[in-house]
Amino acid sequence: MIKVRNLTKYYGERLAVDNISFNIGKGEIVGLLGPNAAGKSTTMRILTGFLMPTKGDTWIADCNMVTNSLEGRKHIGYMPESVPLYTDMTVRDYLDFFARLRGVERQRARKRINDVVTLCHLEEYIDTIIGKLSRGFRQRVGLAQAIVHEPEVLILDEPTVGIDPIQISQTRSLIKELGKQHTILLSTHILPEVDLTCNRVIIIHNGKIIAEDRIENLSAIVKGAKRLRLEVKGPNDQIIKRLQRIDGVKRVSKEGNYLIVECPINIDPRGQITETIVKSGWTLLSIEAMDMSLEDIFLHLTTKEEN
Amino acid sequence: MRNISTIAGKEFKGYLNSPMAYIIICIFLLVTGTYFSIYLKQIDYTDTSIRGFLMYAPQLLLLFAAIITMRSLAEEKKMGTWELLLTSPVKDMDVVFGKFLAAFGIMVIMLVLTWYYPILLKIFGDPDMGPIWTSYLGLLLLGSAGIAIGLFVSSLTNNQIISVVVSGVILFALWYLGTIANNNYMPTGMAQVLSYFSLQSHSTNFQIGIIDTRDIIYYFSITALFLYAAVRSLESGRWN
User: Fold this and answer.
1) Tell me, what's the ipTM?
2) pLDDT at position B91, please?
């Protein structure tokens, strides 16, 4: 549904996007993850036809966005990061304007506006001037605008920035809901967001893709360590010394009441660890494998990049 | 075509919902009405023409063009809404032309409101309607050129104040080229060149009842040229 090939974008001398390629299939929700100024917004602006790439090509629903952007734009719903709105219009007029502009017939537009307003929980505010709405509601109007013409592809740039936690969770579930009918590419610099909403993640840093996979596979991409968390009753110093002698244990550290054991991803020393602890007469209260959080993965990948 | 009317309709509504259009129309009516009546009184009602109205109408019309267009594209850039406009399946030309039509529509309303000057003359005297009609045609053409220039300037910036000042300066410079050309000390060749480019020189024929195709072509070219420049300016934004 979305295809990107060797996409490169320079702003004057500054390289913003550096030769990236990826595919997004129909029905996927993909997160474009990266720190600020990583090139996320630029990539999205090129995908939507707002900017032209310096090099490379993008396709939306088989329309080349460089040579046939006008046709491709029909398939896109887009919410830019700043959530631009005409603040002097009512929600209804605003949605009607964009629905009509994107080729929805008058009758159909009326029905669609009612549908999206319900979906985005804006019923009470449909005839309110947008300028009078709070940030959270404006965000919903922005989202409603992006889906009012039933596009196949949704491109959402930082959809949960600047709204309160309750609204964030509402927006996330709305996005998940939308994912049933649309192909979605969303960008974020907040890691849990991808974790909660996306099937797949593309991590981008300094304009380059540094990792791309399904979320559950990402920890394996990181060639670093797997971690175990133990709670043991006994003299900590001795326990650490003993554990470090076990084959396959790279490092043992203390974290609060727990001991953290790091080991290579392909070795599972849990059996030996329990045996050692029990044989030494200490009490093992718990042992569990810790998944690397997206934060860890991200930190790992980006610091590796810098080194 | 439908896109143009959607954009023009939205813009037009926007003008009607903001106080700006009403304020300029009021000022326009106040000033032109004052000069309309002062002129009639000065010549003791011996001439039933709208000459008094025409004394400052063109300059005010240019001011109107600069003010009415200042937000049309500059504001979209500042608010970021043009990102939505330009990612909708709409040609850049449709955006510019829709905005042009909306501003043009407001100007037509403003000029229609001044019709009570000739109507008064018709009731109380026997005016020559020929020059009156051609004067209105001249004002429409002048206004459309002004709006096109204003739109182009507005497409270059995201600051409304810069937009109104720059387009105001350009419009008045183009207008007063005619005054400079009429200066006795100006060499003839130079004067001809200046008056060829001047918005003012091309408006005088209309005021005395002459429709010269050269004048019409001039105003049409200026309008087309600057609308085209505005479209190109939007397009070039995509390549930045």
Assistant:
1) 0.90
2) 93
